[in-house]
Backbone:
C-alpha cells in the first residue's frame, strides 16, 4: 500500500465510522465553529490533541508547531503562524482557555538542548526552538548533574511555563484574561506511559491526571 493509498484507506474508514456517527454534528458545524479550547501542541505524530482528549469535530482549535512553543509578541511584518492562530482563537472565537501541551521525547526540545551544547542548529528549526533558550539555560544551570534524558524532560516542562509567560506578552491575551477570564493552562503528555500530566499553577509542578 502506498502512503497515499494508506490515507485514502483511512479516509474511507472515517466515512464508515466517525463520520457516519456524526453526520448531524458535521451538518451543524458547517454553519461555523465555536470551540471553547485552544491547544498549542507539537507537530509530533504521536501527540494528536484530538486523540488524547477524545475530541470530536468543532471541539478543539489547535495550532501545532515544532516543540509546541509560543513565541513572544513582536511588532513586525514577518510571518507569524502561531501568533495568527492565537489572535484568531482569542479575538474571533473567544475561547475560554488556551492549553500549551508538551510531550515526552520531543525532538524539537532535543534540538534546543543540543544547541545549548554547541551543536549547530538546522536552518529553520534552530532559530525557532531558540524561543526556549531562556528555559534551556536555566535547566542547564540548575540540572547540570542530571542525565541528558532528565534534562530534556526538564526542558520539555520548563518550555511550557515559558510559553505560558510568552502568551501574556500578547496584548489581546492579557485583555481577554482581565475582561472575560481567559485561562492559560499547561499539560505534558508522556508517550511512553500514555499518561497526561497537568500543570498545577501554584506549585508549578506537573501532576499526573488520574486515568479514571
Ligand atoms: Zn515535540
Residues:
Amino acid at each position: 500500500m502506498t502512503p497515499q493509498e494508506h490515507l485514502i484507506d483511512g479516509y474511507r474508514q472515517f466515512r464508515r465510522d466517525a463520520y457516519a456517527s456524526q453526520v448531524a454534528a458535521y451538518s451543524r458545524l458547517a454553519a461555523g465553529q465555536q470551540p471553547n479550547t485552544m491547544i498549542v501542541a507539537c507537530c509530533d505524530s504521536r501527540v494528536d490533541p484530538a486523540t488524547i482528549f477524545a475530541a470530536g469535530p468543532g471541539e478543539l482549535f489547535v495550532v501545532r508547531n515544532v516543540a509546541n512553543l509560543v513565541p513572544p509578541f513582536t511588532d513586525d511584518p514577518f510571518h507569524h503562524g502561531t501568533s495568527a492562530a492565537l489572535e484568531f482563537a482569542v479575538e474571533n472565537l473567544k475561547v475560554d482557555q488556551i492549553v500549551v501541551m508538551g510531550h515526552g521525547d520531543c525532538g524539537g526540545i532535543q534540538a534546543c538542548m543540543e544547541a545549548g551544547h554547541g551543536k549547530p542548529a538546522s536552518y529553520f528549526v534552530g532559530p525557532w526552538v531558540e524561543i526556549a533558550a531562556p528555559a534551556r539555560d536555566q535547566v542547564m544551570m540548575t540540572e547540570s548533574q542530571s542525565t541528558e534524558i532528565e534534562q530534556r524532560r526538564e526542558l520539555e516542562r520548563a518550555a511550557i511555563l515559558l510559553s505560558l509567560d510568552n502568551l501574556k506578552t500578547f496584548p489581546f491575551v492579557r485583555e481577554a484574561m482581565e475582561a472575560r477570564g481567559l485561562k492559560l493552562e499547561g499539560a505534558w503528555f508522556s508517550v511512553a506511559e500514555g499518561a497526561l500530566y497537568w500543570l498545577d499553577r501554584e506549585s508549578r509542578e506537573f501532576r499526573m491526571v488520574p486515568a479514571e
Summary: Residues 42, 44, 67, 103, 106-108 surround zinc ion (CB under 6 Å). The chain has a mean pLDDT of 96.
